Amino acid sequence: MADVSKFDSPSTARDYAAARPQYPAELFETLDRLLGAVRLDGALVFDVAAGTGIASRQLAERGAHVVALELSAAMLAKLAAGSPGVRAVQGSAHALPFADGSADIVTCAQAWHWMDKARAVAEARRVLRPGGLLAIWWNQTVYEADWERAHAERIAEAAPGWRRFSETEITEDYGQTPGLSPQTLTFAWQRTIDLETYLRYVASRSYIAQLGDAMPDFIARERRLLADQFPDGLVTERFHTILLAASS
User: Fold this and answer.
1) Contact 133/104 with Cβ under 8 angstroms?
2) Which CATH number belongs to the domain containing residue 73 in this structure?
3) Total domains present in the chain
4) Among 125, 171, 218, 241, which lies 20 to 30 A Cα-Cα from 229?
5) What is the pTM of this model?
6) Are 183 and 166 in contact (CB under 8 A)?
7) DSSP β-bridge partners for residue 106
8) What tens digit of pLDDT does each residue of 72-113 get?
9) Helices marked H in 162-214 — which ranges?
10) Which of 213, 214, 198 minimizes the C-alpha distance to 151?
């Protein structure tokens, strides 16, 4: 179950809204295909644990009717202010405030690991129409280049509870839930952003936000080290977006 206190602060919500990455177009094209006769354009989507609305807006841009559900008041405020055309509702994935069989698709981006998986799957199944789609995905940062590995080692040192889960671990841990037999797809992509935006992205991560008073020193050290690594001030960050998708 989510510890909302990690995210329910205006500063974390601001960093999240300003710097978190979007999701690749190929992901949404795949969702459109998996929906079958129903298309994203016109579909009713319940986007649970929607954060500041990154996925919600991308779904709405493709013509979906999106209801975004978020438990954190700070995140929900950012979502509502920055997501015209998206209906914002406060609530939990464990008790969806929606009617049985009402949604074409239930989505959860970058947040399923906070859930009681059995409860969340049962609720998603309840609100999906027959043949509807449950789609769960994460952006996983790639840590393979020298600077990426060194950066990951410093994060692990500062936040000992953190580790990067592999695609296999995600599939086995989150996919093997009663009532959920998903197919898994992976999309590789990258983005180039300025260093300050990258640092805000780092600060928005739960395990960095938990550093509390130690976080400013950690971010300042990363600023110095990454400025030496990227003298032009631009950071290219690589991702694998992992999608778990299951029909009801």
Assistant:
1) yes
2) 3.40.50.150
3) 1
4) 241
5) 0.91
6) no
7) 46, 134
8) 999 999 999 999 999 999 999 999 999 999 999 999 999 998
9) 167-175, 195-204, 206-209
10) 198
Tokens of 53: 């609305």
Give the rounded distance of the alpha carbon of 84 from its chain centre. 20
Which residues does 201 contact at the CB level (< 8 Å), separation at least 6?
15, 19, 20, 21, 193, 237
Note whether 205 and 237 are within 8 A (CB): no
CB 47 within 8 A of CB 127: no
For residue 21, is it within any domain?
Answer: yes
pLDDT of residue 20: 95
Instruction: Confirm whether 221 is domain-assigned.
Output: no
Contact 45, 129 (CB under 8 A): no
Which pLDDT score, from 0 to 100, does residue 2 have? 40
At 125, the amino acid letter reads: R
User: In the block, which residue shows the tokens 């009717």?
Assistant: 65
Rg of the Cα trace of the chain?
18
CA–CA separation, 123 vs 117, rounded Å? Answer: 10
Residue range(s) defining the domain that contains residue 167:
4-143+163-190+236-247
Output the CA–CA distances (angstroms, integers) from residue 210 to 118, 200, 216, in the order listed.
27, 14, 12
How far is Cα 64 from Cα 113, in angstroms, rounded to an integer? 25
Q: Is residue 110 assigned to a domain?
A: yes
Task: Read off φ and ψ for residue 217, nearest 5 degrees.
Answer: -65, -40
CA distance 242 to 137: 5
Sign of CA dihedral 126, 127, 132, 134: negative
Instruction: Determine phi and psi for 72, rounding to 5 degrees.
Output: -75, 125
- ∠ CA 202-109-132, nearest 5°, is 175
Which parts of the chain have pLDDT scores under 70? 1-8, 165-169, 171-179
Contact between residue 183 and residue 246 where contact means Cβ atoms under 8 Å apart: yes
Structural domain includes residue 120: yes
